[in-house]
Q: What sequence folds into this?
């Protein structure tokens, strides 16, 4: 993914142009200066493993949206982490799952493609699921179904980090036997147990990133956080509130399209359309006397005002388009 160096990076909402010109050979080098490392790291794994929570915790800002429902993340999202002598372009990806339908197939393929494009892969595992009745599950049980697929997918990756996430949810004495199982299956991997939610273990992860990433100067200016636009971030915040405030039926059939984005001297005005696939879903989203859509808009507006640092007007409309998630043209229009 290093060819992304020469691209426009947006956030905090100013455009930057980077150049991949080499440093002149005549420039002197201070031999006492600590070695710098930089590169791209792809966060991959099954749904709900905590990839987005890990990204947000590492960046210390909410960039990727989060919910307890699978497939919350639909697009690859880049966030730039700066630590002493280290810059990591973290790529948050959709959860890899058995895809049903064109949209989910596109999401899974984007995640799998990321593995071959980054300098290092970081497999995030929900370790709490691997503890049953106070014991670590047997290796043959752990590496079955989804985790077996992931291990097979990553077994030839030289620069591989395995994050055993959610260690705050089970007794610490079970951690070493669990790590031993993963080390035997993937002997080349660097294992890092942590709690992304509590930000416990992140410093250890950053040190491991230094080991797997190449030496080099930062890829991005230190005041750049992401390559995503304000429009994308606004659409994601709105979709997150739909996930959090509606039942299981609605979120997976929802897309958010920003149809107007206007800056005025006093505020930013955002006009968004929420697409669903059924009239019944539209009714759920709007709610009795518009209560649900008002709640979605209010919570999204509050977060976006904090994110953008200015007053904001948010106008939401709910519309129905039958089977949009299997329409190739519509998926392209919505950024898939």
A:
């Amino acid at each position: 993914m290093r060819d992304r160096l020469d691209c426009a990076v947006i956030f905090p909402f100013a455009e930057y142009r980077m150049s991949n010109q080499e440093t002149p050979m005549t420039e002197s080098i201070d031999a006492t200066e600590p070695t710098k490392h930089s590169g791209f790291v792809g966060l991959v794994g099954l749904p709900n493993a905590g990839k987005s929570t890990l990204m947000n915790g590492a960046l210390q800002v909410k960039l990727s949206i989060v919910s307890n429902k699978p497939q919350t993340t639909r697009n690859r999202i880049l966030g730039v982490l700066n630590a002493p002598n280290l810059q990591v372009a973290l790529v948050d990806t959709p959860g890899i799952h058995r895809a049903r339908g064109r949209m989910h197939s596109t999401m899974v393929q984007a995640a799998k493609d990321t593995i071959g494009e980054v300098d290092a892969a970081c497999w995030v595992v929900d370790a709490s699921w691997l503890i049953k009745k106070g014991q670590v599950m047997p290796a043959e049980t752990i590496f079955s179904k989804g985790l077996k697929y992931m291990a097979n997918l990553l077994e030839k990756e030289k620069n591989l980090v395995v994050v055993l996430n959610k260690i705050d949810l089970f007794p610490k004495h079970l951690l070493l036997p669990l790590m031993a199982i993963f080390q035997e299956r993937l002997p080349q991997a660097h294992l890092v147990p942590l709690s992304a939610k509590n930000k416990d273990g992140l410093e250890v992860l950053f040190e491991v990133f230094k080991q797997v990433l190449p030496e080099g100067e930062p890829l991005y200016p230190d005041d750049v956080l992401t390559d995503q636009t304000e429009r994308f971030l606004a659409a994601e915040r709105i979709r997150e509130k739909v996930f959090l405030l509606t039942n299981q039926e609605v979120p997976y059939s929802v897309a958010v399209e920003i149809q107007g984005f206007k800056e005025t001297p006093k505020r930013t005005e955002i006009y968004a359309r929420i697409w669903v696939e059924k009239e019944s879903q539209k009714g759920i989203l709007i709610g009795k006397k518009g209560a649900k859509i008002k709640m979605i808009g209010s919570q999204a507006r509050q977060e976006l005002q904090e994110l953008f640092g200015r007053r904001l007007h948010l106008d939401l409309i709910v519309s129905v388009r039958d089977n949009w998630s299997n329409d190739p043209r519509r998926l392209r229009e919505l950024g898939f």
Q: What stands out?
A: DSSP finds ten helices and 13 strands in the chain. The chain has two domains: 2-212, 230-333.
